[in-house]
Amino acid sequence: MAREENKESVGPAARMAAAVAKRMRVKKGLTQEQLGAQMGYSGAAISAMERLLHPVSDEMLAHLERILGGGTGIFEEMRPLVRLEKLPEQFRGYAPIEQKAVALWLYANHVVHGLFQTEAYARALIAGGHPEPTEERVEELVLGRMARKALFDRKPVCEIELVLDESVLRRPIGSEEVLREQLEYLAECARRRNVILQVLPLDAGLGGQYAGARGDLNVVETAAHDHVTFLEIQRESLLITDRAKVSMHLQQYAKIRAQALDPRRSLGLIKEWAGVRR
Length: 278
Description:
This protein has 278 residues and is α/β, with parallel strands linked by helices.
């Protein structure tokens, strides 16, 4: 629903998209009703978008590119920026750092890391959150999460290491079928040259030292070759830049990786659990 208070939460990318859309609409001599008719929206929807009462959607940006873009690709380029802007508030400060990273060292021990989730897995996980989100908000968050995957194919490449606790790979989210598809996707990701994926087995703590006991961990080498840590728990987040603390996190990650199965064995297990023929 278009509301005046929505203006306060609209990010700079969505504001820019609305301003450019209005300017190009006027330049083409189109009314809001005429533009809406060509896009499959009402004139009121175009008005709400331009006035920031209802932030531009990903679908609307695609239509704006088709009707107003004129081959420039301007609205297409805005789509990933707007998607990222709709991520949860506690994640927005970290999202640009992740997208520009030189390298990522990741450990997840509850659910599959967001960067590696399939659309179905992410939708089931987000829709089941508390407080229960609206269908519209679920779609916004899913799109934002999927937009992060641009990092996989970015040039220059980002080197990504991910260690997943075995419990993550055995925990169905949504359904057994969703989990199976998620495991198949992880196997595909593991074959990428810039991705190393390892599994921390359930028996890793048998010797009395379980390196993954302190939970999820995200350590980033930035474009400036600095290192930062991002931690997130219970809707709260922490971005750590203190060198001594980040060094400690890198050492902790090294211990987690040392206790994990090697990449080949890890891939074999993931494929086995997914029911994929080797």
